[in-house]
Amino acid sequence: MAVIRDPMPAFEFFQPTSVEDAQALLRRYGADAWVLAGGLDSLDWLKDRIKRPAALVDLGTIPGLKGIRDVDGGLEIGAMTTLTDLVRHPLVRERYSILLEAAEAAASPQIRNQGTIGGNVSQDTRCWYYRAGWPCYRAGGNICYADTPESINREHAILQADRCVAVNPSDTAPALIVLDAQMVIRTAGGTERVVPAEDYFVGPGIDITRMTILEPGDLLTAIRLPATWAGATFYFEKVRDRQVWDFALVSVASAIIMNGSGIERMRIAVNGVSARPLRLQAVETLVRGRAADEMTAVAAGNLAIDGAQPLTFNAYKVPLMRNLVKRAIRGVEPATWNS
Amino acid sequence: MEFLTWGRNPWDQSILTHVSWDLLWAALFAGVAFLLAHGGYMLLSAHRKRHAAETDALEAARPDLPPRIVRHSLAARLFHWVMAAAMFTLLVTAFLPIAGVRFAWVTWHWMAGLVLTASILFHVIHATFWLDFWSIWVGPRDMPELKAEVMREFGHDVPGPRPGKYPLGNRLYHFTIVIAALAVVVTGLFMMVRVRTPFFTRNPYLFGDATWGLTYVLHGMGGVALVGLVMAHVYFAVRPEKWWITKSMILGWITRRHYLEHHDPDRWKVRGAGPAARL
Fold first, then answer.
1. Per DSSP, what are the bridge partners of residue A192?
2. A282-337 pLDDT, tens per residue?
3. Do B104 and A205 touch (CB under 8 A)?
4. Beta bridge partners of A76
């Protein structure tokens, strides 16, 4: 199927100034509506003519969806806050540096100027078979083109694949899971629903056509970061093909609170290995009370990859994920040069 | 409303992908409409039943029959209820996600499918070697019974044949559900080759796109048909005048009175005496 990158097909363009107006538009156009945040995921779909909405509802003109507020020692981040604003915010730097690192690892400075935190966590998978418009499971068809003997599936899932083997591309998602972020959703019916970040994402076993629990007409309005993990010892690492600008092959985020030399509690999540960012609760349980040393890290790394089922070309992700989990626990020594 | 969904494969060929899930709602609507229509008809119609005195006379004439007549063996009843459980699991796991109730359904679905397949295989062997295989089937020879049953439904007292072991409606239902169930079982077994299971090595290229499309469409059509068929089955099972049949699927027997009232002893011959006689 040819990919056409020329001017987009015509659509109605709306710039509502309130969430209520935005949702009224979504109700009016139903399945023909498209929600536009930063536009970085959307414009690919539209210019490739894979998605042909009748109406675009731009959330960029709703003032209430932007900005970062200090709430009870935590933060409330408007869903339309740009990644650049997030990275530059002093309270994010002071309390949740892991989110800063994750947001800064996303794409390029230009894209971070335009891309939003809400869009980053809600973006669609980058599986090129799916994005080519072919009738795969995720597009409502009956096959996964990425899971065949000769598929090019180097970037695809090693865990929790269920028919579809696409992965979640968000950089900030694992950091938000580690911080026990709460996703504030305004449902199509107008009520507010708050869900933990780890429950915001959905795998293909539950819903093969979506990456998040957002139903048609729902809007993610804010992300709340509780004070629980503020100031913990954080670790974030994203491994990608090109350091300057790329999606993660595998990323890891962790927060550890130490008690003397032992780990009092820890949260750890990975992305790029499954259709949803995975919180590794078995690892969290394993390391509780143990020293953050090599032995614990090895055990945790091995446990993390339990059940991994690599595809034809992505077996490298198994040791990569194992090593990232190890590094998240025992840390990384600074690189030294001996010449 | 569309009946089928189509896509374009990487070779830009138009291919079938599924039935339209609008058909699920159509099947539910048709099922409910049938229940209401039949329920209304049963309230208002003059369908002819045997008078109590008539059945009394039949009972008096056959003192040789035991009070309980075995209708379903333990094996047959076990098959029925295992199959029913598998069928409900299949329908729930297939259609609740389409209706918006999200859960990890695929593994439950194919496991229930395997249970259904095994129970059907058991049933075919059991019915072939231990039961009267043809007693449940319909054919041209049943036309006189059909005519008589229709006349009785309209209130006429006609002398035509009465059912053997299974009422005509029961046999017609069995015929229909065999077609629908075989369609979903055969296509479902092939579809298992596309998902990860411990039983098959995944092989998405077992068929070409067109054949896979047809396989998915047949599976969907069979599944949607089963929604309506199962609704009708449950409806008839709980109807008061059919309860004696449902009870026999639990306990295994019917009373001598029900046997004589509803069946033709020449077409369903009961042999032997004792507390419960067999066919």
1. A186
2. 999 999 999 999 999 999 999 999 999 999 999 999 999 999 999 999 987 766 76
3. yes
4. A69, A224
**What is the rounded CA–CA span in Å between residue A302 and residue B14?**
46
A1 Cα to chain B: minimum distance (Å): 6
Which residues in chain B are contacts of A133 at CB distance < 8 A? 8
Closest CA to A206 of A262, A111, A135, A274: A274
Strand, coil or helix: A236? strand
B204 vs A140, A143, A207: nearest CB:
A143
| Angle formed by the axes of helices A294-304 and A317-330, nearest 10° | 140
Provide the shortest C-alpha distance from residue B258 to chain A (in Å): 49
Contact present, B122 and B79 (Cβ < 8 Å) = yes
ipTM of this predicted structure: 0.85
- Best of B17, B111, B190 to mutate (most A CBs within 10 Å, chain A): B17
Q: Chain A: residue nearest B16 by CA?
A: A141
Would you call A36 helix, strand, or coil by DSSP?
strand
Continuous H helices in B96-204? 106-129, 143-153, 168-191
* Cβ within 8 Å, pair A148-B204: yes
For β-strands B68-70 and A12-14, DSSP reports them as unpaired
**Test mutation, A143, A153, A158, chain B, max B CBs within 10 A:** A143
Regarding pTM above 0.80, the answer is: yes
Q: Would you say A111 and A180 are in contact if contact means Cβ atoms under 8 Å apart?
A: no
